[in-house]
Amino acid sequence: MSLLLSPAQVAGLSLKNRVVMPPMCMYAVEKEDGKVTPFHYAHYGARAIGQVGLIILEATAVEPDGRLTNNDLGIWSDDHIAGLKSLVDELHAFGAKVGIQLGHGGRKAANAIDRIAPSALAYNQDYGVPREMTVADIKRVQNSFAAAAKRAQEAGFDLIELHGAHGYLINQFLEPLTNHRKDSYGGSLENRYRFVQEMLPHIKANFNGSVWIRLSLTAYDDSGIQNTIEDWQNIGRWLERDGIDCIDVSTGGLLDSRPNIPVYGGYQAPYTSRMKEAVSIPATAVGLLNSPELDEYLLQTQQADLIEIGRGLIRNVNWLADAAAILHDHQFKVYNNSYERGQVK
Ligand SMILES: Cc1cc2nc3c(=O)[nH]c(=O)nc-3n(C[C@H](O)[C@H](O)[C@H](O)COP(=O)(O)O)c2cc1C
Predict the structure, then answer these.
(1) Is residue 1 part of a domain?
(2) Ligand 1: which residue has its CA nearest to atom 15?
(3) For a designed S-S bond to 179, which of 93, 118, 160, 249 qualifies (C-beta 3.0 to 4.6 A apart)?
């Protein structure tokens, strides 16, 4: 039996396997009201039937102006709870654990009326120059994250993940490239960490499941002023101290310049290993992990605790069944007998 497809206890969750569907924006909210649509039930439901152990819903906005686009899911109002709850109930009924990524786009909020960021630095010309957040803005957004955590609790999610990666608001605070503040939220690494640190106790008071964060461990900038791996390891240690249960390790997205880096199967996994050197909480790996043998190797050698399959699961809802065939994992069970009849023997 493979580690990839066998049950696991990770970050306080009982999972039926170690395959995670990472958050992926679907931009499917045509009414622009942030509410779950029939598409979401079908899209996520199909992956739950495909036996994904943990599904993390796409970046979901804690404020209307925090949406990456107006077609994003939202959790800024109590009106969002019922739709999210019925989606969670459906996915639970199919045996998946369910998370939600809580996000704010900051300077990368494409349709924001009042676009805010730690500093008045544009992502690019299309997005325009954001307004530098006042301390009152900071407190309001922190409260919005905490309120979103409470709604996620009411909707029955097993975990929440703070979107601290890919150049969105939390990432903008953490990186010196995008945070030029002169007050206690900018300058030193400790100060840049303060935005997320201050909200964690409130988030944890409002949500009693597993609390994760996604980080981009490099901005792929060679100017010498981005966080180093050692800085990210320190952030990881503080996050563990402050109650985070798992670090979802990604890279990039902070800057508009496309990094000229080699991209190959497992290219981001070394960043997960570096984070695991620093923390004792689990860490996930993501990024072209479509080879089940590579995934099994990363798990067996303890370079990652969970494996995230993004685009692979968009292409193939039966990714796990195919992985079981490749790994000769005869213990793996598809959803039911009818699905069993559909397997190529
Ligand atoms: C369509 C699409 C939407 C995405 N949306 C998000 C998102 O909402 N939040 C996030 O953290 N990452 C997002 N990502 C990044 C994925 O979670 C994942 O890290 C990335 O696709 C690399 O994994 P993969 O090679 O398995 O696809 C998105 C990726 C895709 C393809």
Answers:
(1) no
(2) 24
(3) 118
Using CB atoms within 10 Å of the CB of residue 333, give its burial: 0 to 12 exposed, 13 to 18 middle, 19+ buried: middle
CB-based contact 38:86 (threshold 8 Å)? no
Pair type for strands 8-10 and 13-15: antiparallel
Nearest protein Cα to ligand 1, atom 1: 24
* C-beta of 59 in contact with ligand 1 (< 6 A): yes
Residue 3 belongs to a domain: no
- For 32, other C-beta atoms within 10 Å of its C-beta total 14
Closest ligand 1 atom to the C-alpha of 290? 26
User: Which residue, 50, 23, 45, is CA-closest to 323?
Assistant: 50
* Alpha carbon 76 to its chain's center: 18
Tell me: the pLDDT tens digits for 186-220? 999 999 999 999 999 999 999 999 999 999 999 99
CATH code, domain with 96: 3.20.20.70
CA of 265 to the centre of ligand 1 (A): 15
Q: Report the nearest atom of ligand 1 relative to the CA of 68.
A: 8
Ligand 1 pocket test: pick from 19, 20, 21, 25 the residue with the most ligand atoms within 8 Å of its Cβ. 25
**Contacts for 240 with CB less than 8 Å, ≥ 6 apart:** 279, 280, 281
Residue 9 has pLDDT above 80, yes or no: yes
Verify whether ligand 1 is closer than 6 Å to residue 163 (CB atom).
Answer: yes
- Count of residues in the chain: 345
Say how far apart CA 215 and CA 206 lie, in whole Å: 22
Nearest CA to 290 out of 261, 248, 328, 320 is that of 320
- Tell me if 216 CB under 6 Å of ligand 1: no
d(CA 41, CA 282): 29
The rounded distance, in Å, linking the Cα atoms of 22 and 256 is: 22
Alpha-carbon distance 214 to 252, whole Å?
12
Read off the pLDDT of residues 31-44 as tens digits, 9 standing for 90 and up.
999 999 999 999 99
For residue 144, being part of any structural domain is answered with yes
Going by alpha carbons, the residue nearest to atom 4 of ligand 1 is: 24
> Does a structural domain hold residue 2?
no
Nearest atom in ligand 1 to 250's CA: 19
User: Does 199 contact ligand 1 (Cβ within 6 A)?
Assistant: no
